[in-house]
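Practice problem 4.
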């Protein structure tokens, strides 16, 4: 392995979140600024907003029902011609 190519690793680097939370992590920089952490992330706090997708499934089922009602075109049967 080559020497002196790896950055210095800080075992106790401080991470500062925009919400004011501070925690210790391992990193290659002594201080890290983050926008969102486990204390303010909507998924982890339970404040996640569910996107209302009602109607999409019903529309899909309606399209499938409509497509099954329409009679399918019959395929043309090809007749082989005899070569003389």
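Answer key:
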């Amino acid at each position: 392995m080559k020497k002196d190519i790896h950055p210095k690793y800080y075992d106790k680097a401080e991470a500062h979140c925009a919400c004011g939370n501070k925690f210790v992590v391992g990193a290659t920089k002594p201080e890290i600024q983050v926008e969102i952490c486990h204390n303010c992330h909507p998924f982890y706090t339970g404040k996640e907003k569910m996107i209302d997708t009602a109607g999409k499934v019903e529309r899909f089922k309606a399209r499938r029902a409509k497509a099954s009602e329409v009679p399918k075109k019959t395929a043309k049967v090809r007749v082989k011609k005899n070569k003389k």
